[in-house]
Amino acid sequence: MTQASSYRIAWLPGDGIGRDVTEQALAVLRAVAEASGFALHVDEQLIGGAALDETGVPFPDATCEACLDADAVLLGAVGGPKWDANTGAQRPESGLLQLRKALGAFANLRPVSVPDALADASPLRSEIVAGTDLLIVRELTGGIYFGEPRGRTGDEAYNTMRYSEAEVDRIAEVAFAWARKRRGHVTSVDKANVLVVSQLWRDVVTRVHAERHADLSLEHLYVDNAAMQVVRRPRDFDVIVTGNLFGDILSDLAATLPGSLGLLPSASVGGPVGLFEPVHGSAPDIAGQGKANPIAAILSGAMMLDELGRPEAARAVRHGVEAALAEGYRTADLWREGLTYASTDEMGARIRDHAVQFINQVPA
Ligand code: NAD
Questions:
Q1: Cα-based angle 271, 275, 280 (whole degrees, multiple of 5)
Q2: Is there an atom of ligand 1 within 6 Å of 93 CB?
Q3: For ligand 1, is residue 292 a contact (CB within 6 Å)?
């Protein structure tokens, strides 16, 4: 693939710690880009509560245009107590939904890894989680969250879980493509023993595997069993592919494995422009205090670099995170006696230094 020499990033810091952590992510991305010989052009735009305060809407047209015009979107988080009384389209989160819709991303990627240095921060025993490195691929634009008919009549309410073969085929393809770049194993999660829609899901995933990816391995798990196995033997999973509802729940379950929300990145891809954002919210309880962990945002930046076709720069960023953790640097969420306390900015700077050093050490 030919690499571009510059990339346009739409930067949407949003609210609360969204700015604290994405500032650090951008600083790391800029440094890594410079050391690697490519440029980033960053265009800051409003979203969420900050956009409501300034423009009266949570997703202004200018933001939408800038995102669609960019090569990638880096988002912080939206929301906070100031806007909690707002309803409907006046809620900050409505801006996020509008953004996701505008970008049309149908695949949500949530990697969960537990480096050895953090295994003792997990709520699970360290020997169970140490070395976990899994990727959840969640279908994002279909399933029961969007299925029609839906409604409430009298004393009844109903939603519809609906998938077409084409929708399952394209998300399965994303999962197999990632497995090919990773350890070659896909676990497809459904509820095919009860749901007809899951039977179609399973049939299509099986067909995509047989027709296009028979050299990779595939297993199917029912969602209830999958939830148990992710907790019992997380290290055995490589890529997990599942629908919107099951993915929502499983990805939050898996998010508890590393011991802090501040470690978990995400990407939503498949549309014209990818969206990269930490999994956590705006954490108003610690905003602006230097306590936020920037790693989730920084690793979201690494996913962005991968998607932009800059895997070597992405590897440097991930190395930076691992090196800073391995030498004992911890933000407030993970700090304990015997480790080195780092503010949000100090953690970002340490990761940046290691990442740049990594690039400079690799022979050209
Ligand atoms: P949250 O993720 O903001 O915070 C949950 C807890 O985790 C808090 O104690 C917080 O201090 C901690 N935390 C989160 N990120 C951290 C980080 N990087 N470093 C250290 N600690 C971190 O969830 P919440 O408190 O339920 O929601 C707060 C606001 O964020 C609400 O307005 C909610 O609607 C919004 N929210 C936004 C998004 C998003 O923008 N994608 C996602 C979830 C929640």
A1: 140
A2: yes
A3: yes
